[in-house]
Task: structure prediction
Amino acid sequence: MDFTFKEEQQQFADALRRWVDKDYGFEARKKIIHSEAGVSQQAWATLVELGMLALPVPEQQGGFDGSAVDMMVVMQELGRGLVVEPYFATVLGAQFLKLAGGQEAALAQVAAGELKLACALGEQQSRHALDDVQTTAVDGRINGRKTVVLHGAQADALIVSARSDGGISLYLVARDAAGVRVTDCRTIDGQRAATVEFDGAPGTLLGAQGAGWPILEAAADYGAALLCAEAMGAMDAIFAATLEYLKTRQQFGAPIGKFQALQHRMADMFIHLEQARSMAMLAAVKAGSSDAEERRRVVSAAKVRVGQAARFVGQQAVQLHGGMGVTDELPAAHYFKRLAMIELTLGDVDHHLERFIAQPGFREAA
Result:
């Protein structure tokens, strides 16, 4: 099976990498993180100019109709560059709009970079169970509280899950609508997240009333596959940084990379990295599968394997860097924090392991 990227995909990756290397380096990123906004409008404009926002949008709405595999190429480079812009939140929101249908105008705005989205799905009691929804919607008015909404304060509109007659419904809510209160904060990895409270906020129904769960689950699986790709980019970068450190750090008159015990650690990291890469690729291929059971199995398996690899590779990299590995002065600490947050986003290892085991046929096959 050929796992090489197509020429067009590689061109997207190369363009992103050149921009990150030139304009979004480590020091530039730190300035963005510590700015009041926490994001860069200039960086967002560049992503739009490069066609990254148009990539997942259908051609009819001015996009390139890119698949999850196309998006994998982009997310890997964003992970390698530790980009903190609200790209993931927006393309995940766009996936909700695509699956719900009837949101062509909003999708065209996403493709043009004129509409930033965020997904308000989790609640204080729900942890990783996105079907545990206490936020309510009555006659299109939403009441409740959503937590850890990635880039919620930077978004123009929010995708909100709410309990309504017949089940879970999805709504598109303007961030500045009456009855919406947003409290922004910075997460440990330098990203932005928000607590969003709704007090009778008006929303536009996405899809059918009470039929939002299949859309929510499918979009969340798509998002999990993208996060696996981002984690691969971050792991590639932290592995390369650790290898370079072992080649240059001197002890007892020789580079520490010559010590066999440390070589064994690097070999173990590489094995974890390549196994995770295979699962991330498979998740990207199956993220849009019409077979929901297959999609659930593959995405959960990938989230488990990538999460395990992220933890192992990150921890080993920090240890091999010594005390410097946990300081803000070195990129290793920033990659480690981002990998930790990816593992917790849209379901951690334990959650997806339980989900994988619960799929039909698992116990019979075992």
User: Anything to note?
Assistant: The chain has a mean pLDDT of 93. Residues 58 and 65 are 4 Å apart (CA to CA).
